[in-house]
Amino acid sequence: MNFIPLFVYLFAFMPDVQVLRWMSPDSSKPTPFRTWVSANPQIQGWNVEQLKSCRHTFNDRVDILVQDSLASALADYLDTLYLDLEDEGYDVAAFAITGTSCESLRAFLQREYQDSALTAAILIGNLPVAWFQMIDDWNNNGRRDPDDGYEEFPCDLYFMDLDGVWQDTWVRYDTFDSLVPGMDSIYDTHSGNVAPEIGIARIYAATIGKQDSLIRLYLERCHRYRTGGLVVTERALVYIDDDWTPWAGQWSGYVGYLYPERMFIADSEQTRIRDYKPRIDTAAYQWIQLCAHSWPGGHAMKYNHGQNWDWFYAESIPRIDPEACFYNLFACSNARFIERGYCGGRYVFQSTSGLGAIGSTKTGSMLEFQDFYYPLSNNYSLAQAFSSWFVQRAQGGFTAQERSWFYGMCLIGDGLLKPRFSVPVAENYQNSNRFQQPISTIIRNSFYLSERSALLLDKTGRALARICKGENNLRFLPAGVYFLKMTDDRKPKTEVTPIVIIH
């Protein structure tokens, strides 16, 4: 989808936002590339085995790519995922991957994009990782300032941008923590057409625990979510620590594109771990937007007017078991999936309702949240909204400041999932007289004229689209029964009414 709202052009600039920092109680440091390679030996061979072929050629194409050694153990769950995605209208193919070459994986994705119009891929297991290195330039002044440090990090943009030029032309000169000409198997130059063509999401649990069992539980959870078996709550938690209170109201408003009902906490003396932990332990949210200095092992929050720090440890997540599905982690390096017990992975894979997390593998995170939440509110999947957001950032090429903020961004979980609402509308109306008399009959491939804004839901209560006041194009929907959920401030109750779309 090429979704470019008008306001992107009007307000597309980098706000002067306080930079996220790696903050940990033990002064830990990111795992270097060389250390990671020594613990993850590179396999020279490369092989792709097709597990499932695409049965159609006229819908959006998505690929399921799974680590070969996991394919047998996950076979039944992959079959279910394949069928679920087909039911959602995708053309789906599945492949088992052997090898660790990021260049080979990118070449395979390039062929899939060119030959089959690939739109997104889900990478399951310990599949190839591309690394990038840079000297941050947070204020875009072209100089090395005191807080502009060297970073090397996994970079999934490498697999999303399939026609840009990625090169390894520099090496780190350790004495001065700078870059000098050379090659070291870490990309450092990105040029040409730098915008992404596809969405990428990782189901990466190797650094969390026994990955085959964690992934089986996760895929089963995704199926229950898609079929209405996983109970969800129609609200979000927006939790913003001290350094970003000037932008807190605006950012909460962007989450409001998707969740009109949300708990909003941004008071500088209230945002503490002793407040955050009980909130995610005792209340249910479908989405959590968290803004806090962090490290892969957890979060750091200021208190006492910024003089002291609280610490939240990711290892406590399985015990807390937050009742939340999705996370936007404006939290330094929380999605650095190569780190043992990384926080984003614990939220997704070690809770009974975790489904997806967006975050960064380096210092920095998402900005311009409107370009992410607005597509989600228009029935985009997580991967589509993420790719669309990245396309907006790439307009005119990435500045040094944008590379510093965004090059570590990645999506953890099944990227084809979409936020949904939990109203059991089919059950509510099956025995109702009104179910026999739909309010509207809509001819497929035509427009629906609505006098009010609403959410269009399927029979499981999943939100498919936002209905705006005026004309709405519903050509993308197959024939069937759907429901309109309309909220009117003048009325005490939310209205849910059925409609029928026919051929």
How does this model look, in words?
The chain is of the alpha/beta class and 503 residues long. 26% of the residues lie in helices and 28% in strands. It has a 6-stranded mixed beta sheet, with helices on both faces. The protein has a 5-stranded mixed beta sheet with strand order 1-3-2-4-11. It has a 5-stranded mixed beta sheet with strand order 21-27-26-23-24. α8 links the parallel β12 and β13. The protein is globular.
Strand-helix topology:
Elements lengths: L5 H6 L21 H7 L7 E6 L8 E7 H4 L3 H13 L3 E8 L3 H15 L1 E7 L6 E5 L14 E5 L2 H4 L4 E3 L2 E4 L4 E4 L7 E3 L7 E5 L7 H16 L9 E5 L4 H11 L6 E4 L7 H10 L1 E8 L2 E2 L2 E6 L4 E6 L3 H4 L2 E8 L12 H7 L6 E5 L9 H8 L4 H12 L6 H7 L2 E5 L11 H6 L10 E3 L3 E4 L3 E4 L5 E5 L2 E4 L6 E7 L8 E8 L1
Parallel strand pairs: 2-3, 2-4, 4-11, 12-13, 12-14, 14-18, 18-19, 21-27
Antiparallel strand pairs: 1-3, 5-6, 7-10, 8-9, 15-16, 16-17, 19-20, 22-25, 23-24, 23-26, 26-27
TL;DR of this structure?
The chain has 503 residues and is α/β, with parallel strands linked by helices. It has 15 helices and 27 strands.
Keywords:
alpha/beta, 6-stranded mixed sheet, 15 helices
* Spatial strand order of the main sheet: 13-12-14-18-19-20
Q: How many angstroms does the end-to-end distance come to?
A: 24 Å
Number of separate helices: 15
The 3D shape can be described as globular
Pick out the low-confidence regions: 1-13, 422-439
Class derived from helix and strand content: alpha/beta
Fraction of helical residues: 25-40%
How much of the polypeptide forms β-strand, as a percent range?
Answer: 25-35%
Number of strands: 27
Q: Largest sheet at a glance?
A: 6 strands, mixed
Rg from Cα: 23 Å
Q: Which whole number gives the mean pLDDT?
A: 88
